[in-house]
Design brief:
This protein has about 260 residues and is α/β, with parallel strands linked by helices. It contains nine helices and ten strands. The strands form two sheets. The chain has a six-stranded mixed beta sheet, with helices on both faces. A four-stranded antiparallel beta sheet has the order 2-1-4-5. Strand 1 and strand 2 form a beta hairpin. Helix 3 crosses helix 4. It is globular and about 55 Å long. Bound molecules: adenosine-5'-diphosphate (ADP) and magnesium ion. The site of adenosine-5'-diphosphate has 10 residues, from helix 1.
């Protein structure tokens, strides 16, 4: 069974002309440890798909299943169990961090939130000493050190803040990261460093990635498979290299032509 399965999910919103269908019967699967790239221009429905995957909004039709469990039907403990195993990283690295929390609090908060959850003990450090060790290990894995612990988010650069977001996402040892334009707000060279960090982390931890971007070179670099979205629909899907070498759709060719090479 695939780790993540999207079966013909749609989302519509009320509009002046009735209903606007912003996601239209999108289907794809992600195997364990695999990276699926979703690429499309702004407004094509990518973030709406990400929010449905994460269970933040419900599909109007269709189903998202994580490890066989229907995300939209999960409640209470079961929803929290899914949320632990599937962590988001969003575009704006500052908005996602509480400005009044020190890095140490930011990184230990997931342990507090999930400590009451039955079944997750194996993933939680037990006791303060183990927690401190886990936090040090998390910081190291994203290229930061203990000097970050007493500091606040505003004291860091955009790239460092995204590293803190990634460290927090890793805290509970998830099986899937949902990355929605994680480097789009960063300078190109800083973004490239984050992309390489994501590759290293995947090698070390074997997580699956749902990687969403408007950049074709980026998905080509990172993804095993690519799904191309246009106006809410999947217009093309395939193995990354094959799709980039021989795109079938004019829209895909335009996306490839629109973005320069990646400086990685
Ligand atoms: N809550 C909402 N209500 C109405 N329309 C929305 C809402 N969220 C997104 N949309 C519309 O859905 C379309 C797709 O948006 P989005 O998923 O953010 O695309 P992308 O992430 O690919 O840029 C856009 O036209 C956007 O205006
Ligand atoms: Mg978006």
């Amino acid at each position: 069974m695939a780790l993540l399965e999207l079966e013909a999910i749609s989302k519509s919103y009320p509009s002046s002309s009735g209903a606007a269908l912003v996601v239209d019967r999108v289907s794809f699967t992600i195997a364990r440890g695999q990276t699926l790239g979703v690429v499309g221009e702004s407004g094509s429905g990518k973030s709406t798909v990400a929010r449905m995957v994460l269970g933040l909004i419900e599909p109007t039709a269709g189903e998202v299943r994580f490890d066989g469990a229907v995300v939209a039907r999960a409640r209470g403990q079961r929803l929290r169990w899914i949320r632990r195993r599937m962590q988001p990283v969003f575009q704006d690295p500052y908005a996602a961090l509480n400005p009044r929390m020190r890095v140490e609090q930011i990184l230990t908060e997931p342990f507090r939130i999930h400590s009451a959850l039955a079944g997750s003990e194996a993933h939680l450090p037990s006791g303060l000493k183990a927690q401190r060790e886990r936090v040090a290990e998390l910081l190291k894995s994203v290229g930061l050190d203990a000097s970050a612990l007493p500091r606040y988010p505003h004291e860091f650069s955009g790239g460092q803040r995204q590293r803190i977001n990634i460290a927090r996402a890793l805290a509970l040892r998830p099986e899937l990261l949902v990355l929605d334009e994680p480097v789009s707000a960063l300078d190109v060279s800083v973004g490239a460093q984050i992309v390489n960090l994501l590759r290293t982390l995947q090698r070390e931890h074997g997580m699956a990635y749902l990687f969403i971007t408007h950049s074709m070179p980026l998905v080509r670099y990172l993804a095993d498979r690519i799904v191309v979205m246009q106006r809410g629909r999947v217009v093309e899907e395939g193995e990354a290299e094959a799709l980039c070498h021989a795109p079938r759709e004019q829209y895909t060719r335009a996306l490839i032509a629109a973005t320069p090479q990646l400086p990685v």
